[in-house]
Amino acid sequence: MTHVFHRHLHHTPPVAIAASGMTIRDAAGRDYLDASGGAAVSSLGHGHPDVIAAMHAQVDRLAYAHTSFFTTEVAEQLADELIGGAPEGMSHVYLVSGGSEAVESALKMARQYFVEIGQPQRTHFIARRQSYHGNTLGALAVGGNAWRREPFAPILVPATHVSPCYPYREQHEGESADQYGVRLAAELEAAILAQGADRVIAFVAETVGGATAGVLTPVPGYFKAVREVCDRHGVLLILDEVMCGMGRCGTLYACEQEGVVPDLVTVAKGLGGGYQPIGAVLAQRRIVEAMSQGSGFFQHGHTYLGHPVACAAALAVQRVIRRDGLLAKVRDDGEAFGAMLREALGDHPHVGDIRGRGFFWGVELVAERATKSPFAPGLKLHARIKNDAMARGLLCYPFGGTVDGRQGDHVLLAPPFIATRQDLQEIATRLA
Ligand code: PMP
């Protein structure tokens, strides 16, 4: 009998007792190769000595100081580090305790910005179907899975959902990638106009779609077109990089590869690398300046904002990534990993698509390749794959089989950046 409120109430998962490098061990002595970093979290693998040492040193020096009284050296250093690597124009970092908190904070920051500049009528968000932004009420509202929102719909903030950038399923035959990107931007513009352009706060999107769509890499030019539409109507662009950011796609921020600067960008997961719960919102100078010249106060906050030990872990993760040249490694080995996946799975009759960037890959499963028809949701194929993979000592992150029936099943792979080519090959082989 367990007293832990497990999410799946009829299933108590195995007990994890130890972890090192690429592996997690359970109480039965079974080792699991971590091909997903949990949920794209453990970017440096498990038990990294530099991160552990940094956390120890911080806990010895100062474990906690409330942000209404103090800032800390380590929070300042982390913010400097994150801004140092961020796209031009980002100037401030709001440090929270995870992804949903980051998204929630970004939504409120965007709303308050418009209140401060005298546009309080902007109350509506636009986001994308098949996105995931978290489970708190605001983050859930912009999330793009109708079945997740449905039970909570009456208490969610107003949001409209447009198409994701999903070339495998939604790019028309004969339509170029450019044309597809332009079509999606036009759909966004139509959604903004349908609300009334002066009523929309922001467009919220994952730069590279994550778990709930099996890694959706944007077509070139899509985000540039989106940025133009947003600018035309004074709508903010919030990019959610909780999953795809912090090096996962081979650049510190995934949006660097899209040539756009968002107004706000959220990060978490790989920020703390699994060593501490931490997330952040990076904000453009103009947003912060408007708030600073207005009320001078962000009407939001959490007790554990900028927790020193979490900041120390995140700072150590950043320093290891830089010192060990891990972004270049992720880019190079990521390409090789994609080739390994295609080699191992490309001809499989039930693999429809293999797509990704860096150490962030999705495998989409279909009942039939020719028609791209998904497996019936009732089969819960993703859950079976997860369990079968665990039985074979592999941790991957499958998702799918939801109510619209179209979304199908995907397997997400997000290995730690320390994975060797041999590890990557082992992942591809075992998954196949
Ligand atoms: N945004 C994205 C893109 C995510 O993938 C997630 C988590 N899967 C979240 C937000 C929410 O993060 P958390 O689970 O840390 O609250």
UniProtKB/TrEMBL annotation:
Give the source's domain of life in one word: Bacteria
SUPFAM superfamilies, per database record: PLP-dependent transferases (SSF53383)
Q: List GO molecular-function terms, semicolon-separated.
A: transaminase activity
Q: Which UniProt keywords apply?
A: Aminotransferase, Pyridoxal phosphate, Transferase
Q: Give the coiled coil ranges.
A: none
Pfam families linked: Aminotran_3
Cofactor(s) recorded for this entry are: pyridoxal 5'-phosphate
Among InterPro entries, the record links this protein to: Aminotrans_3 (IPR005814), Aminotrans_3_PPA_site (IPR049704), PyrdxlP-dep_Trfase (IPR015424), PyrdxlP-dep_Trfase_major (IPR015421), PyrdxlP-dep_Trfase_small (IPR015422)
- Name the family the entry cites: Belongs to the class-III pyridoxal-phosphate-dependent aminotransferase family.
Name of the protein:
Aspartate aminotransferase family protein
